[in-house]
């Protein structure tokens, strides 16, 4: 739906009149699953953009305060719970604002050091007690669950691209990912470790945001950034610091491959370019990661 600053002002004024005087403006990177706005200098408003994403709101409110004390970097702090009303049909949240730029090559100083810091954060996340945490499902867009959830999508996308991609090599990577089954105990995963959800200050990773796809399950989905953002040396450092086995790495490659194929012809130039860079990185590594199990 059309979510703009005027709508946010009305929602805040009706539900949180103590903040009605504060200015509202869109953030530079508003996201896809949710739309985010500045509220004054110290807060943000986060609103699901469609019904399917509304499931994430209550989950973030429930679990972020529990996860935060165990993590080495700041994560969003829920401050207030908005409810559906006449202008907006889903729950929404007010969070404390975290300052920083979204991760991009021009914002990150040392990409290898950045990769090591991110691996440390994800390692800490995985060690948090997962008892009672939300298992993979629609709220996580399948992240944390079996990669086979997207098998049909992946093969349809590969078939549609035809000879524009090296189909045999692509499907070898995909088959290796499916073969590398996960049998471990469920652990916490973020679910959307992407540059837009990683904030940097002074060239260093400073915070991790947007836990809408988080849950407990298979953490392989959190390795996707190795191919979507990191270069080869940073990728190697990330894997070493994260200490994942061949099977987890292979499944992560599968998650990255699925996303690259389904967005290969995305109408948004930035998304399209990212998909093609990711596929190049995956193909550059071949079909490694077939052996072993987690």
Question: How are the elements arranged and paired?
Answer:
Layout: H1 5-15, E1 24-26, E2 34-39, E3 43-48, H2 55-67, E4 78-82, E5 92-96, E6 101-102, H3 111-127, H4 151-161, H5 167-179, E7 187-189, E8 198-201, E9 204-208, E10 215-217, H6 225-228, H7 232-242, H8 246-262, H9 269-284
Antiparallel strand pairs: 1-2, 2-3, 3-5, 4-5, 6-8, 7-10, 8-9
Share in β-strands: 5-15%
Q: Give me the CATH fold name of the largest domain.
A: Aminoglycoside 3'-phosphotransferase, Chain: A, domain 2
Q: Would you count the extended β strands for me?
A: 10
CATH superfamily of the largest domain: Aminoglycoside phosphotransferase (APH), C-terminal lobe
Kindly name the structural category.
alpha+beta
- Principal-axes geometry comes out as globular
Q: What's the CATH first level of the largest domain?
A: Alpha Beta
Give the N-to-C terminal Cα separation. Answer: 41 Å
H and E string: HEEEHEEEHHHEEEEHHHH
- Give the CATH architecture of the largest domain: Alpha-Beta Complex
What is the gyration radius calculated from CA atoms? 19 Å
Strand order of the largest sheet: 1-2-3-5-4
Largest sheet: number of strands, sense, barrel closure: 5 strands, antiparallel
DSSP helical segment count: 9
Task: Tell me the number of structural domains.
Answer: 2
Low-confidence stretches: 289-294
Describe it.
The protein is an alpha+beta fold. It folds into 2 domains: 5-98, 2-Layer Sandwich (Phosphorylase Kinase, domain 1); 102-284, Alpha-Beta Complex (Aminoglycoside 3'-phosphotransferase, Chain: A, domain 2). Helices cover 38% and strands 14% of the residues. The chain has 9 helices and 10 strands. Strands 1-2-3-5-4 form a 5-stranded antiparallel β-sheet, sandwiched between helices. A 3-stranded antiparallel β-sheet has the order 6-8-9. A hairpin with a 2-residue loop joins β8 and β9. α8 (246-262) runs antiparallel to α9. It starts with a helix and ends in a 10-residue tail after the last helix.
């Amino acid at each position: 739906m059309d979510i703009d600053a005027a709508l946010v002002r009305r929602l805040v004024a009706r539900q949180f009149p103590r903040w009605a005087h504060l200015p509202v403006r869109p953030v530079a990177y508003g996201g896809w699953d949710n739309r985010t706005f500045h509220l004054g200098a110290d807060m943000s408003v986060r609103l699901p953009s469609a019904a399917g994403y509304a499931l994430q709101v209550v989950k973030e409110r429930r679990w972020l305060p529990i996860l935060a004390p165990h993590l080495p970097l700041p994560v969003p702090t829920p401050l207030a719970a908005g409810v559906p009303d006449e202008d907006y049909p889903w729950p929404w949240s007010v969070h404390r604002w975290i300052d920083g730029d979204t991760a991009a090559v021009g914002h990150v100083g040392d990409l290898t050091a950045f990769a090591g810091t991110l691996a440390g954060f994800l390692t800490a996340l995985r060690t948090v007690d997962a008892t009672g945490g939300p298992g993979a499902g629609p709220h996580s867009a399948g992240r944390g669950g079996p990669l086979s959830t997207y098998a049909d999508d992946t093969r349809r996308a590969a078939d549609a691209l035809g000879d524009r991609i090296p189909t045999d090599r692509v499907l070898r990577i995909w088959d290796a990912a499916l073969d590398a089954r996960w049998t471990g105990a469920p652990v916490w995963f973020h679910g959307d470790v992407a540059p837009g959800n990683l904030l940097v200050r002074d060239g260093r990773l400073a915070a991790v945001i947007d836990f809408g796809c988080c849950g407990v399950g298979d953490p392989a989905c959190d390795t996707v950034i190795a191919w979507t953002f990191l270069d080869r040396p940073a990728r190697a450092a990330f894997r070493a610091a994260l200490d994942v086995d061949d099977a987890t790495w292979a499944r992560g490659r599968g998650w990255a491959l699925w996303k690259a194929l389904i967005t290969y012809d995305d109408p948004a130039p930035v998304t399209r370019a990212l998909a093609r860079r990711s596929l190049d990185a995956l193909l550059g590594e071949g079909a490694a990661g077939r052996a072993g199990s987690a």
